[in-house]
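Researcher: Next entry in the queue.
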Amino acid sequence: MSERLLEAAELSRSFQSGPRRIEVLSNLDLEVDGGESVAIVGDSGVGKSTLLHLLGGLDRPDGGTLTFRGRPLPWSDGEAMGRYRNRHVGFVFQFHHLLPEFNALENVEMPFRIGGRFERTETAAREILERLGLAERLGHTPARLSGGEQQRVAIARAVAGRPSLVLADEPTGNLDPSTGDRVFGVLRDLQKERGFSLVLATHSERMAAGCDRILHLAGGRLHPLSDSAAATFFGGSGDAE
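Model: Structure for this entry, 241 residues:
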């Protein structure tokens, strides 16, 4: 039985919009086991990105608790939160967020350098980029890479440090379906090889179906979706890729 990696209990998050306070997440619960893959689906603007930002320590909830390997995240300790993000979490975003002035190898090395981990930095970055078929593109800046290549660099950056948790926010949403399928296949292969947990927000029926569980975010909370319910959701949403 896999150990519990991450657990959110009664997470809440709201935002001020003019005179109104908009509640995005309300008493949300989530459990993620080690090595598990979980797809988060839901309408645009429902709070999927907000949830991933909370899980990764990029944002702080208004209420509730978030524990990692049984220990509450130390929200008030900026240095400890920085270590959590740098050592234990990898992020993959829809629009890559690669640094344009650095080449592929340097982009993947960046989290190591920010975290003060200089041992095997270049070796680890080079190994994962070569594993992703980018051996001939190490010295290329993002402007010289295709969309699929940029996203593979972003995946390499997320997993090179061997995190326990990878959070992917619409990781193929900016790619054509064929390229998106290949990129997702790479991500899932890496997960199987390295054993990290994967939580991804997606509008893609194929990506969601490739995960161990599908959860629907609606009304500020997560609800499990069966295969038949997922088929109905994607068939009616018009968001399947």
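Model: The beta strands are 4-17, 20-33, 37-41, 63-68, 71-72, 89-93, 165-169, 197-201, 213-218, 221-224.
Researcher: Noted, moving on.
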